[in-house]
């Protein structure tokens, strides 16, 4: 399986990072070694002093697809959850300045914890999903998919023009405003439509 992540998909987050508004979806990949499941703890790696959480809705691809038309894209996933696109912000800043790839800042081991998947049939419309992250019991990020620059269907269609999507692939759909650092001892809890789907400790 592979993990594909969309960057810069919520306007307020683009502004907080002083990034430009993209004229098409921006994506990058994380290797399968980035995946963390079952609420296992995240260990801060020693190569960064500024690991940030980015709370994102994650789609799980359920059928093989290539050149998927946007109007059929909804058939390619039936489960979602919330995940954290962990980012070594200090490394990413250097990579951005030099125009280098982001993998070093985003593709490292355990940089993609994902929560328990929820069936689409149990959720409201895909363009009106709310999600949030609590850090040590306090809400630090809140998003709603009505604010997405590029919808889930648009993202799936766009990626599949370049990369074949396979069963089990995961798509991180972008973070809303409010990203910030984690430290040892922190507890992260992520919610989708009010249901806690992910909870883990920073070690
Ligand atoms: Mg992200």
Supply the key terms.
single chain; 203 residues; alpha+beta; Fumarylacetoacetate hydrolase, domain 2; four-stranded antiparallel β-sheet; 4 helices; 14% helix; 33% strand; binds magnesium ion
> Order of strands in the sheet with the most strands?
2-1-12-5-6-9
Say which CATH homologous superfamily is assigned.
Answer: Fumarylacetoacetase-like, C-terminal domain
In CATH, the architecture is Alpha-Beta Complex
CATH class wording? Alpha Beta
| Count of runs of 4 or more consecutive helical residues | 4
Characterization of this structure:
By secondary structure, the protein is of the alpha+beta class. It has a single domain (3-201), classed as Fumarylacetoacetase-like, C-terminal domain (Fumarylacetoacetate hydrolase, domain 2, Alpha-Beta Complex), CATH 3.90.850.10. It contains 4 helices and 15 strands. The strands form 4 sheets. It has a 6-stranded mixed β-sheet, with helices on one face. The relative contact order is 0.28. The mean pLDDT is 97. The site of magnesium ion has 7 residues, from strand 1.
């Amino acid at each position: 399986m592979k993990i594909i992540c969309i960057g810069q998909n919520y306007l307020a987050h683009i502004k907080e990072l002083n990034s430009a508004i993209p004229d098409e979806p921006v994506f990058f990949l994380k290797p399968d070694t980035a995946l963390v499941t079952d609420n296992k703890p995240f260990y801060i790696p020693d190569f960064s002093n500024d690991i940030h959480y980015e709370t994102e809705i994650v789609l799980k691809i359920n059928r093989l697809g290539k050149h998927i038309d946007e109007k059929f894209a909804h058939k390619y996933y039936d489960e979602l959850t919330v995940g954290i696109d962990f980012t070594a912000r200090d490394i990413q800043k250097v990579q951005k300045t030099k125009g280098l790839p982001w993998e070093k800042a985003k593709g490292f081991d355990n940089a993609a914890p994902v929560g328990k998947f929820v069936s689409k049939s149990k959720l409201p419309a895909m363009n009106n999903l709310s999600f949030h992250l609590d850090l040590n019991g306090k809400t630090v990020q809140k998003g709603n998919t009505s604010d997405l620059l590029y919808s889930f269907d648009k993202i799936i269609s766009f990626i599949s023009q370049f990369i074949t999507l396979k069963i089990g692939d995961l798509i991180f759909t972008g973070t809303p405003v409010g990203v910030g650092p984690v430290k040892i001892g922190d507890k992260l809890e992520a919610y989708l439509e009010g249901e806690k789907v992910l909870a883990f400790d920073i070690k």
